[in-house]
Amino acid sequence: MRWLVGWSSTAAGASGGAVGYDGRETYGGQVGYDGETLQPVGSQLLWGDPDPLWAVGDWRPDEVRVVKSDAQTRIAVLGTCGASDEQLRVGLFAARGGALRHLTAWPGSYTAIVQVGRRITVCGDLAGARPVFHAPWAGGTAYATAALPLADLIEANLDFGHLAALLAVPDVPAALHDSTPYDGVRRVPPGHALILRAGAREIAGYDPVASLAVAAPPADPDSAVDAVRDALVDAVRARLSAPRHVPDIDPGPVPGMGPAERRAARGMPVPGIGADLSGGPASGTLALLAAGLPGMPGTLLGHGTGAGERLVAVTFNDLTMRGREEELERAGALAANPRLHHVVVAGGEDTLPYADLDGPLTDEPGPSLVTAARHRARLAAGSADHFTGYGARQVLDAHPARLADLLMDRKRRHLVRPVAALTKADGSVLVPARVYGAARRLARTPYRAGVEGLAERLLRRSFTDDPAGAVGASLAALTWGGPGPAARWLTGEALAEVSVLLQNSAHRAGVGPGQRPGDYRARAALTRHAADLRILEQAAEIRSQRLHAPFLDNQVVRACRALPETLRVQPGARASILRTVLKGAGITDLPPGWGTPTQATTTAASRTGLRLATDPLLSLFDAPLLAEAGLIEARVVRKAVRAAAAGEPLPMDGLADLISLELWLRRLLSRRGTCWTGTPARARAVPAGIAPQRRAVSSGG
Prior knowledge:
Number of strands: 21
Helix content: 25-40%
């Protein structure tokens, strides 16, 4: 894990000497319980008192940049940023005058921190893949890009209201609000910045949001797609232009193993740049762009295979599942490009979900914890810088609720093609009336009424079966929010607590997102996906490797949000947009069927993995911490695990949410040590362990 952490104090006091990032003597840190200087473990000080900032973890030298105007005016950028030092300086001057959007408009994925006197500004991203957290501490405010260091700092207990909402309504921001799993640690919403002035904090938005009262001006589809192309090309080029990183040198030969096998066995990526190549349009687009743009994208000369400029394209072939043969054939056809070096990773039963329940502690829980070993097997064959297509579906596809947006904007004729596609998939002549009725109902339902209706459903435990097919999923999504797949297994007390959180949010001053329901639901889905990708990156981390998800970059997200809804809702829109992107970059030779939707095998793989891991999972829920916290009853979950293993049609996503949260709690409570030096061992998150909850509302929500 890598993060930055600092604080803004009310008084300017120093407590110990240290050496700053610029080599000058500075001061950083407060005094710990025993008189020691308080600072993060394994950190480098970027600047010191009275408002110190540290970079923690295995940052590469080119990933940490500090540009100064004077002793009290400077900017730090951590991550992959395509801006030059001069552009950073211009952004610093703009931020000094209060303009924050400039800090988020450079290509790449990064976190920008600006200090102007005693004013500190920390910008989060639009997707939520690089969040910012804050907590009150020592009369001021501490902030970080990870929640666990702040939880250690303030000895935070668990926020059971947040955990219950995470299981009951994971797609409803109103319930989660700005909370985290740690009581007292708060999250800055995506698209916002944290501004600190001598310890006082303020949350400010830096990106405009579409108004509910006025329809967005019509956008030209061609120019919008061109903007997506330019943003994607700039995002890929920002990674290619960064200095190449060579992982630790191979310590020596192993009998019977070649260089690639040795690297994989020792958890070392291949030097250079690579990409996923699943056969789908998102990963294929990034692989072809990275291989086609100038800048020597592939392996370094003199290292590994010596293939020169070829990009390592990794395809995961799950030998336990069927149904992806055509997609794998398309991946092979794409890999025939002489600029690509194709690597196929064969996955057996040891790479199924739930096959490996051991892993590192992540900052927050996420459903990807149960599939981390599966992804790690693929990433171990990848490169030091590895492109992934995560986020393309969320930023390019149309959320079903966008059909209600079209009705609100009086664009009914644009519903014809998506509804016809659903009718063809279902085969029922009743589909158009059902879909149109649900979209019209959502368009006429105020946000407050939708949230209150969801709260009532939770109290009545009104859960429908898992929606069948594309039509069922679309109808279920045509609401302001619905129960999560794990909600049916929560206790009545936990559901009542979440219901109270929803009702309180509905009665909060200034209620409502100020957006159309489709845009609102799409942003929430993107935030949840980006948060899970962040947890996956931590859980499946390969030493010396960086995962790059250009579709989640700020500029790419902005360009995709500018796409007209009338274009976005059409069947096959994502593949069509990406085909145009590749054509604009000079890539036209695509295999037949490229972009064709494939039958998802994720649920089948999850069911198979759960069946093979039934005994360990039942043991996991013999005395679960979730039951001790009052969120579930152990016997209910054990019964659900047995039923799912037997083939009953239960929501596998819900079981993954429950199991991953239980795994995360066990890893958190079994950890030793803390993120900070200068504090005794008790100064860490959840110092007293799990305490049974008996109140209706246990968090400040």
